[in-house]
Amino acid sequence: MDNLTKIKISFSDLRHVEDTCKIIPYGIGMVASNTLKHFEDKIEVDLFKDPADLINYLEQTIPKIVCFSHYFWNSNLSYEFAKKIKEKSPDTIVIFGGPNYSISPDEQEAFLLSHPYIDFYVYREGEQAIVDLLKKLFEYNFDIAEIKKLQLNIPNIHYLSNGKIILGELAPRLTDLDQI
Prior knowledge:
- By secondary structure, the protein is α/β, with parallel strands linked by helices.
- The protein is built from 6 helices and 7 strands.
- Strands 2-1-3-4-5-6-7 form a 7-stranded mixed β-sheet, with helices on both faces.
- The protein has helices at about 25-40, 50-60, 75-90, 105-115, 125-140, 145-150, and strands at about 5-10, 45-50, 65-70, 95, 120, 155-160, 165.
C-alpha cells in the first residue's frame, strides 16, 4: 500500500487549553508506536494532545479510526470530539481506552450504553489490544456491525452488541517491554 491508500488512525490524549502541562503523551505514543510496528505498510498514524491541533486536522481529513485516552480530566472533552466526529462521519471507528473506566462489568456496560459514540473500549493495556482489534477490523473490512453481530472475543476489548456488553478475555500483562 502507498500513502494514498493507508488507513489513517489518530491517537489523542487531549488536554484542556488552560492545562499548563506540556508533557509528551507517552501512553498513546507507546500504543501508536506498537501499532505502527505491526501495520507500518497499512496505516498512517497521527498523535494529538492539543484540541486545536485536532480540530485543524479534522477540518482537513477524517481518519478511519480515532483513538482517545480516557482519564477523568479529559473524559468529557474526548467524548465531545468523538460525538462530533461520529456526527460528521458515522463510519469512523471510535476507540477509547484508559483508567477512567470501572472494573465492574455492570458499570462498564452502563458506561458504554450512556456513551453511544464509542465503538470499542480498550480495557487495561492497549498496546497489544489495539493490534488485535486492528487485525479483526482488517479481516472484516472495517465492518464493525459484523464484528459486533458475531460477538467476536478480542482480548482486552469491550463493546456493545444488541445492547449487551461483550467483554474480550483479559490478555496476559506485558512482561517484556522490548516487545513494544
